[in-house]
Design brief:
alpha+beta; 47% strand; elongated; seven-stranded mixed beta sheet; 178 residues
């Protein structure tokens, strides 16, 4: 009888450990979802500080294909985000869906996100719609998840020129690359 109680106790301990592990994995996935939401919302609010804070410090590879390649968060924010996106005449909407998040270990994760991007540029009188996939790597830094690497895979693009009373198609393509 004593052995049976010990076996049941071990089984309960093992089940508790499995539940704790699964809860940790699910919590990490939700924290990464919140990180991505903060990033996208910061882009739409044109908030360079909040965008910068979503990325890890130090070496961070950000590959935006023809938009540019950056080796750290400052290069990205100061060299791409501010000059191209932080203007009163730039009206952006970044919307991600279909996350495929994989927790590698307690400190690393990967994710693929589907991006639906819309831009209205009132200065150039253009409307741009892009679909893309973000291929991200995440790293936990001081208990917080940060983007450690991001590659954008552009899928489709629609670029329109508008003038008062008209709308003219400029580009409709499967991809912006060759």
């Amino acid at each position: 009888m004593n052995n049976t109680k010990k076996d049941i106790h071990m089984d309960v301990e093992q089940r508790l450990q499995a539940l704790e592990t699964e809860l940790g994995r699910l919590s990490a996935m939700e924290e990464i979802r919140q990180l991505k939401a903060r990033y996208l919302n910061a882009c739409d609010r044109q908030d360079p500080g909040a965008v910068r804070d979503c990325f890890a410090e130090g070496e961070v590879i950000i590959d935006m294909s023809y938009f540019g390649h950056c080796a750290n968060r400052d290069e990205f924010v100061d060299g791409i985000f501010i000059p191209r996106g932080c203007h009163d005449y730039v009206l952006d909407m970044h919307h991600c869906a279909n996350p495929e998040i994989a927790i590698v270990d307690a400190e690393r994760a990967t994710g693929v996100w589907s991006l639906n991007y819309r831009n209205i540029n009132t200065n150039d009188q253009t409307v741009t719609m892009i679909s893309a996939l973000y291929h991200d790597e995440y790293r936990r830094v001081d208990g917080l998840w940060k983007i450690a690497r991001s590659r954008t895979e552009y899928r489709t693009a629609l670029h329109l020129l508008y003038e008062p009373g008209s709308l003219q198609l400029q580009t409709a393509a499967r991809t912006l690359m060759g």
